[in-house]
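Late entry, written up from scratch paper. The run itself happened at the end of the previous shift, but nothing got recorded in the book at the time, so transcribing now.
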Amino acid sequence: MSAWRVIDPGPVSGHPLEWVSEAIPEPRPGELLVRVLACGVCRTDLHVTEGDLPVHRPRVIPGHEVVGEIAALGDSVSGDFSPGDRVGIAWLRFTCGRCAACRRGAENLCRQSQYTGWDADGGYAEFATVPADYALALPGGYGESELAPLLCAGIIGYRALERAAVPEGGALGIYGFGGSAHLTAQVALARGARVHVMTRGVEARALAKRLGAASVQAVRDVPPEPLDAAILFAPVGDLVPTAMEALADGGTLAIAGIHLTNIPELDYQKHLFRERQIRSVTANTRADAVEFLRIAAERRLTIDIHSYRFDRADRALRDLSDGKFSGAAVLEM
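Output as recorded:
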């Protein structure tokens, strides 16, 4: 099969990815072998490729928004799986099931957790494997390329929205408006929130307006009303004080990314007093994935797709780094 591997993590302008040809992987006991039909290009893939996230698996194949069809079953696969079934492969790949976090339903905090495209090879390849217990059923009514961004951008955005704790009818600020944010905004709007978007890109601002944002402005502008909650999608620590200053009393800022540049010093009175708080978002649980995909099945989401041929994955990551598109990029086979 053909695949992209991270040979030497570094800036995408320096070509850290290499196009390789190798044998199709064999599914282990309990795993599915999946023929990849589409794979989303997530900012986390960029962090893995550029080395912002430490190497877990040398020469890893990135990609964790994988839509495909089952090609083969490993031994001892449980559940109702058959060759030809369409499934999704997401970021979360393994948790121990025994630690205190797993037992209380917080498997995203499992210290032994493993992730697709970081600890194990992912979907920038013609074939990928996934433990059957972590394969996701996909909603109908979407094409493969539309489904791909749901599997991380959508799921992580949903968890960030839950962590932000937007009150009923409240005002939500969104900082950065890419693949995850434009899906999260639609869920928040459907729940009755007023969504204010702060972002730099002209195309992103236009997309936010089309989706129904109450206001759209530059990334450091002050929103037109105090925010009951905010989500920071841009991996820019300098924006944390900006977002905290925009919060109403008792407001919450959720930081959605796995990687964030350094946060400047915060002033307690200016940024945190009046019970304003910051919450991080760490991966997701399988329950988050199931709930978000249920919402996507019940409410048709608008997904802004920018398609790239599979053999142009390096170009897709460069364009993501340079902010050349709004919405989500997807590799198509």
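The mean pLDDT is 97.
(Scratch paper discarded after transcription.)
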